[in-house]
Design goal:
With 256 residues, this protein is mainly α. It has one domain (2-252). Helices cover 73% and strands 2% of the residues. The chain has nine helices and two strands; from the N terminus they run H-H-H-H-H-H-H-E-E-H-H. The chain has a two-stranded antiparallel ribbon. A hairpin with a 2-residue loop joins strand 1 and strand 2 (205-206). Helix 1 (2-16) runs antiparallel to helix 2 (21-47), helix 1 (2-16) packs across helix 6 (136-162) and helix 3 (60-80) packs antiparallel against helix 5 (104-129). The mean pLDDT is 90.
Length: 256
């Protein structure tokens, strides 16, 4: 399952930044399908009793339903933007970064990481609410995605050091970028600590228990929540600049 998500994320990252309009439209439709499948899976958990079996104080079903609602909104938005994707012209993008825009390598690493994290967040909640008999595959994929995201972060830092990209437009954006990078580095580490505390295998191996289970679980949950907030702030700022302030250049620095 981990390999599937890696290939899906890479295909979307390449497709959304492809010079061909056909590739971009196809990638957008794949994103619609993936988000729709995620929302459908959450809906199934509502009707098959998975969420009903959870204690009333458990907030995870509500969080998953909120994610499903956001996913459906994004599906409608992507479908509405299909004609724009087909008709608009794009400029050539160099492989390496420039001072005014990100290069193709940075864009692919960025969007691959973003897609993987969009899969990892609801998957982590599902791992906590699913019956142990059907939890293993999702748990293995969640751990594998976390390790992949950490590796992608290292590659992003190396490429940005080799060819610096555009500076953040303001102090808030710089702070948000720093927070996202720190969380992308610490979230996988906290996940490994949690795997060690629970005895869950990591790539077929069992990690040593470094911290007690309650502390490991609390750390991973808090870091996940902070990342979700930072990610929402980042996405919200991009949407605000693009659709409200009509600043088309901001998003074009990272997307064709």
């Amino acid at each position: 399952m981990t390999i599937f998500y890696l290939l899906l994320a890479l295909a979307l990252a390449v497709g959304l930044n492809h010079p061909s309009r056909l590739w971009r439209v196809m990638a957008q439709l794949v994103a619609v399908s993936a988000l729709g499948l995620m929302a459908f899976s959450i809906w199934l958990a509502n009707v098959d009793g998975t969420f009903a079996a959870r204690p009333a104080a458990d907030l995870r079903p509500a969080l998953l339903n909120a994610m499903a609602a956001v996913a459906l909104f994004v599906v409608l938005l992507l479908l509405a933007l299909l004609p724009v994707q087909w008709s608009r012209l794009v400029e050539p993008v160099p492989d390496w970064n420039q001072r005014q825009r990100w290069g193709q390598i940075a864009r692919i690493l960025h969007w691959t990481s973003a897609v993987l994290m969009l899969a990892a967040l609801p998957m982590g909640l599902f791992v906590a609410v699913l019956h142990p008999a059907v939890r293993a595959d999702f748990q293995d994929a969640h751990i594998g995605i976390g390790i992949a995201v950490f590796g992608l972060l290292l590659l992003r830092l190396l490429t940005q050091r080799a060819s610096p990209g555009p500076a953040s437009p303001n102090g808030a954006a710089r702070l948000n970028k720093l927070a996202l990078y720190l969380l992308l580095a610490t979230l996988p580490v906290s996940g490994l600590l949690l795997a060690g505390a629970t005895g869950a295998p990591v790539l077929g191996l069992h990690a040593a228990e470094a911290v007690p289970l309650p502390l490991a679980r609390l750390l991973h949950q808090w870091l996940s929540g902070l990342f979700a907030l930072a990610f929402a702030a980042h996405a919200g700022a991009v949407v605000w600049h693009h659709f409200v302030l009509r600043d088309r250049q901001l998003i074009r620095r990272m997307l064709r």
